[in-house]
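Our example copied in:
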Amino acid sequence: MPDLDEMLAEVPESWQLYQEGLKLVHQSQVPYRTLRTGILQCTSDADYLAKLFCVREAFGEVLSCETLRSWFADTGREVINNLLAHAEKDPSGFITAFNEMLFYVKDSDNWEDIQLELAGRRVQEMTFVDIVLDFILLDAFEDLENPPASLTAVMQNRWLSNGFKETALSTAVWSVLKAKRRRLKIPDGFISHFYNISQFVSPVLAWGFLGPESHLKTLCEEFKEQILGFMRAVFNSRKCRYTSADELADDIVSLAEEHSKHMLSKLALPLDSAAGSQLYTS
């Protein structure tokens, strides 16, 4: 790792939060599960870890506000609801599972179990960044880029119909989730709730990314592009102020609003189905 003084000398004096992060990185006090330097387009591992510290602090500020917590939850629910509707899947099961997850994580009696489960999966801190952005979303994108050879063989078999391929893909996803669920030490904990959501969402995403060219594939790629675009912007010092947790939090909220607005415009439902979708999201 470069000398700390050399690194600090290259940082603007106003970047007090980032400087604090660099000092902690130099002391090996920024825990992490996986280095995301490349995918988030940071300049070095030290840069990524310093920014990870800052973003954790800023998201703590953001989610200390009940209004913003509700906004993030409502937006996430609406995005997936609309994606499932475009895939011609009934979103009601997902909505129920999503709401049950929110109820579970809000109950402080469950926090110790949540921490225990996630620690077993090397999640380092109980933050939105570590759990939702890193463990759930980035891991999911990586898995979809590297599907099992058995699934790839089915998808590339030109003698099979698309309907058969989609069914086979969904069955494979459900089988994996069922096997993973049997190994859970806490049968009704955080990971179980996550699998409840995944059983509705994962088959659609898998078919969207791995299946043939289609409207759904375009939407799934847009979903991924907006998630990655948001995360890369958050970890970009030209787009966010690494001066203080408060200012970085303000920039994160602005970027979240910008990217979610763009995503929802792409996922907008036709007027004749909007009323039906509203029943699912109310």
